[in-house]
Amino acid sequence: MQKLSKFSRHLLILPLLFALAGCNLVVMSPSGDIAVQQRDLIIVSTVLMLLIIIPVIFLTFLFAWRYRRSNTAATYDPEWHHSTRLEVVIWSAPLAIIIALGAITWISTHKLDPYRPLDRIDAERTMPADAKPLTVEVVALDWKWLFFYPELGIATVNELAAPVDVPINFKITSSSVMNSFYIPALAGQIYAMPGMETKLHAVINKEGVYDGFSANYSGAGFSHMRFKFHGVNQQGFDQWVAQVKEKGTTLNRDTYLKLERPSEKEPVRYYGAADKDLYSAILNMCATPGKMCMNEMMHIDMMGGGGKESAENREKLEYDSRHVDDLSGDHGVATGENSDAPNATPADATSGQGGDMQNMPGMQQHDGHTMPGMTDGTGGQTTPAQPNSN
């Protein structure tokens, strides 16, 4: 029984090993140009390092054989201590490889910066001047993914689609803890953090259905925090959008607050209409009624603070305890089958809209990274977002 128990425990590791192997296969055979360039960088770096590793391994066996004790023909010189020629060979080759790797890393770090807009569709086609990117706003929830298409007015849960050869601008945040947005076939992983917005520019070049998931552990439901990414032609994407609008319900504040609660194995959900200010409220951590938006607090701080009167803002700025009442013996986790995130028609779309969101301050760039913005202090006007310099 003890041996069987150990064998059973070893079997539990197999799915993880197969998953890792499958991910590696996708990474080395991607379908998006950014992932292709990252794959090429891995190959070049590996080849450069093998230029040293292979000769060293070979010489290790050669020296062991050549200077074995039984080989009396080998020169025996116990007083030998230095060779300038050997020192030059030992140090010059690794130094040349380090310089080459450094140059490649420097170029690739800037060229593959996820905040940098794309300049090509693939290795053979440059980005057309009139190309219009598709904007997707990504929210990591516990434990599912919420995608907004602000230009189309729709939203989805655990399903993402984009037309082939069209640049995609991802804006990524989280509702609670840190996660990592990762589609191996498309591009590298990008962190999703509460109260912050990260970015990713990418393009898919081949039609297909690809796996996406969180690559950063975030709690009990992490293992099932997966979604499907559909790369389709323009006609297929238009049909997908029409399907979402036809079958979807309305995503307003009330619906979102139910969806935000921790749940596992959440099914795909469509929202044919979505509150246009909801993503901004999630980013500024004020989707819950009565909470102060982070950019409003930043504006107060920028203006010198609110004095003693601002003590009343403390409760409005408490976020970490917002799910305490939801916790129960099962850690507050619901499954997709019994989650109270609605499948049917939700509450009135006008409830919980938070009309003042339209007057929220804008976004301000800081060292190339977007954070909830602040007003510029001149008559309450919003400081516009600055274009990314790189």
Describe the protein:
The protein has helices at residues 2-28, 33-66, 84-111, 234-247, 253-259, 278-283, 294-302, and strands at residues 120-122, 125-126, 134-141, 144-149, 154-157, 159-163, 168-174, 179-183, 187-192, 198-202, 208-214, 226-232, 249-251, 263-264, 269-274, 334-335, 363-366, 369-372. The chain is an alpha+beta fold and 390 residues long.
Mean pLDDT across residues: 79
Number of helices: 7
β-sheet strand percentage: 15-25%
Poorly predicted regions: 9-18, 337-390
Secondary-structure element series: HHHEEEEEEEEEEEEHEHEEHHEEE
Total strands: 18
As an assembly, this protein is single chain
The helix fraction, in percent, is 25-40%
Major sheet strand order? 10-7-3-4-5-15-13
**Helix vs. strand class:** alpha+beta
List the helices and strands and how they pair.
Elements: H1 2-28, H2 33-66, H3 84-111, E1 120-122, E2 125-126, E3 134-141, E4 144-149, E5 154-157, E6 159-163, E7 168-174, E8 179-183, E9 187-192, E10 198-202, E11 208-214, E12 226-232, H4 234-247, E13 249-251, H5 253-259, E14 263-264, E15 269-274, H6 278-283, H7 294-302, E16 334-335, E17 363-366, E18 369-372
Parallel strand pairs: 3-7, 6-12, 13-15, 14-16
Antiparallel strand pairs: 1-2, 3-4, 4-5, 5-15, 7-10, 8-9, 8-11, 11-12, 17-18
Helix pairs in contact: 2-3
